[in-house]
Sequence to fold (491 residues):
Amino acid sequence: MTKNTVEFVRNGKKVTLTDIVPTDSLLDYLRLTEGSYGTKEGCGEGDCGACTVVLGRHLDGKMQYRPVNSCIYFIGMVDGQEVITVDDLADSNGELHPVQAAMVEKNAAQCGFCTPGFVMALFALYHDEDAVTREKVTDQLAGNLCRCTGYRPIVDAAIDACQNKVEDKFSKQMVANAKILSALQNDDLFIGNDQRFFAAPKSAKSLSDLYAKHTDATLVSGATDVGLWVTKKLMDLPKIIFIGDVAELNQIEDSATQLTIGAAVTYADAEIAINSIDDDIAETVRRIGSKQVRESGTIGGNIANGSPIGDMPPILIAMGAKIYLQKAMVTRDLMVEDFFIAYGKQDIESGEFLTKFTIPKLKNNEYFRCFKISKRFDQDISAVMAAFHFTIDDGVINSSRIAFGGMAATPKRALATEAALQGRVIADIGQSDKLFDKLAEDFSPLSDMRASAEYRLKVVRGLLFKALNEVASVANKVEQPNMRVIGKRGA
Fold:
């Protein structure tokens, strides 16, 4: 069955839209159609967080709330969810939500333009079941920028409200809202005509059939990249196929030897599983965009858009990950490193789409490190992304997989450097070793706004030395307190 309406919940009531422009944003709907002016537009690219709203979904018998940037979130993507804005938080008698009240009490606003976004990010945290710490608060707020308050009173307000939770009106309405959401139609969505439409298939077969008919359509999952094509490049995208509701593409399978993640699984939903592979991956994922971006963006999308500065591809290449593509009912697989052909060109046919990827788990004699180098620590694009995977027996490097982002037109392995490491005793490799010169054979980076070519080459030399030194200390069981050896690495 296929429906031609977008259905979602607002303030306990079902909203039905029958006529939408494919690239209409949730923000524009709220402000221009609904008249909910509390949500602000700041950057228009998902960076500042002023437009943050919260989406509620009914999963595993309970309501889950996640913050998203409404400026780059297409309105059709909210189908089947609850939409909550800052306008909705206060009770009907005017009593503020505990998060709002704490912001007032702690004097956590000055000009106030960014405040609605902060409030909504904290509202999502308020409904998080995990314990709230200062570290968790600062991570939650990394995607909300403020020029005048100084953050300290905002963090204080967050800790005060979220560590002393009381039942709010949304907790009281959870059962009723979940019932409304459960009753919404879960059919394939198609609004428009063959020339201009927004579609949201619910199965891989529906997606395959639709995409085979409209190979010129734009596939969208989190819209954290495609959304900017609309808001910044002013592109007209007449045909949008949203894959975020495809059941098969939202699965995670965790076995003893590998992790399989569907192409539509968000960073937030994949976080626990993928972070278990290695602690460095966990830290890198935490720094990929903001909480809002990770709640929308997908690892599959990070692969498919083919960016030379994407953070996940070097990690996946170093880990020996594999991707799976489908066209009609025909599937094929290839190594992630073989997917990237040249700048802006990937090994994908017309009508073919990414369905999933697999990551082998580390064996006892395998060691991994990855490092993200950027001008700003949080929510910034990498100047260099480095990933190192070594197989070591008795202190000797038997094999290695080293990949970098930001060093070439595509994410790329350092094959000459890998060959030079083969058979070397890891403890004997010094900072002045000539093997580091091999990196200049592997890469001829460009200078751009993020870093110069000279800086990039110096950085990758240092990161390789750092990775080798850290891994040597662990492999040889030599305790070095100054090295960043954390978690299971110290075991």
In short: The longest helix spans residues 453-475. Residues 2-97+168-183 form a domain with the Ubiquitin-like (UB roll) fold (CATH 3.10.20.30).
